[in-house]
Amino acid sequence: MRVLVSGGAGFIGSHTVVQLVAAGHDVVVVDSFANSKRSVVARIEALTGRPVELHAFDLTDRDKTERLFGEEALDAVIHFAGYKAVGESVERPVDYYENNLGTTFSLLRAMSRHGVSTMVFSSSATVYGADPPVPMQEDLPTSATNPYGWTKVMQEQIFRDAAVADPSLRIALLRYFNPVGAHPSGTMGEDPSGIPNNLMPFIAQVAVGRRERLGVFGNDYPTVDGTGVRDYIHVEDLAAGHIAALHRLTQTDEPVSVWNLGTGQGTSVLELLHAFERACGHELPYEVLPRRAGDIAESYADPSRAHAELGWRAVKTIDDMCRDTWRWQSQNPEGYPE
Ligand code: UFG
């Protein structure tokens, strides 16, 4: 298939592009580089041995999106592009709604005009809302606790409504749990700008000496050791989930399919920290801080639907995730070059 990957220079997008090429697909990347660096593209090319077909613009621009679909004979879209920082979304809600919904509107309009009916969408376990029962199953009701989360809930609804109006659409809503890890080569990984919001990149920056110590947000949750429990999934497993979903969409009569992409295993903040200490070979300092507003005690997937319907399951362990993250971070202490 000829696949448009929006946000293909981002963390999950870049790993998925490499796997799509390896699976024999033609890939076209569109990225605004709002939250990624151009040097990612050369890293993708080094891994695939092929040039990346790149369009550098913001998908909220409907005319440019329309022109892109006119130039490229696309069969499918994998839509990663979006703002994703929870705290920032509380500060700048209008930017989040405008960007995350605007990109989706542009894509859906262009898909409809050019007869592209297959879409794999980056959703998030955040759509399970404030206090979902674990393990989380796809048929739980959706809601959100912050503007970022609402953009995901709303995009899911927009896709569902679009699929009612246009029965040719085949859409996968992939609900990610906590993506971590890096390409096993050490040449691609997560490169957040500024102070990392998320646990794994923060730990990796402590390990490489860029941050003094980890702040653990609360140790009085009703969990194994009092710290928050999450379902960390290796980005390589996550990327493989996208390829499996894309293939499934070509064989299904369901207009909209929802799949959790997680391991089903919960890991606490301190368990992840200690696993990373094993990977990097030294102790990592931490201090316990108050709980972070909006955090829940435990989040992990019931991934059985993806296994049954996609034949996909996550295979990489927490130690694999820490080892690959450490390889990436130690080889690229400041992330990607400009
Ligand atoms: N944590 C710390 N210290 C840090 C960062 C995080 O103790 O410096 C803790 C959090 O309190 C939480 C756990 O580590 O218990 C994981 O936090 P992350 O920020 O890495 O991940 P979240 O589960 O909070 O958020 C992720 C995604 C969001 C998504 C959400 C729900 O980043 O996009 O899962 O699916 F909305």
N-to-C terminal Cα separation, in Å?
Answer: 32 Å
Q: What is the tally of helical segments? A: 11
Low-confidence sequence ranges = none
Chemical compounds bound to the protein? uridine-5'-diphosphate-4-deoxy-4-fluoro-alpha-D-galactose
What is the beta-strand fraction?
A: 15-25%
Characterize the overall form. Answer: globular
Order of helices and strands: EHEHEHEHHEHEEHEEEHEEHEHH
Largest sheet: 7 strands, parallel
Helix content: 40-55%
How much is the average pLDDT?
A: 98
Radius of gyration: 19 Å
- Number-wise, the strands total 13
User: Order of strands side by side in the largest beta sheet?
Assistant: 3-2-1-4-5-6-11
Helix/strand-derived category reads alpha/beta
What does this structure look like?
- It is a single chain.
- With about 350 residues, the chain is α/β, with parallel strands linked by helices.
- The protein has helices at about 10-20, 40-50, 60-70, 85-90, 95-115, 145-165, 200-205, 235-250, 270-280, 305-310, 320-330, and strands spanning about 1-5, 25-30, 55, 75-80, 120-125, 170-175, 180, 215, 230, 230-235, 255-260, 265-270, 285-290.
- Strands 3-2-1-4-5-6-11 form a 7-stranded parallel sheet, sandwiched between helices. A two-stranded parallel sheet has the order 7-10.
- The mean pLDDT is about 100.
- The structure holds uridine-5'-diphosphate-4-deoxy-4-fluoro-alpha-D-galactose (UFG).
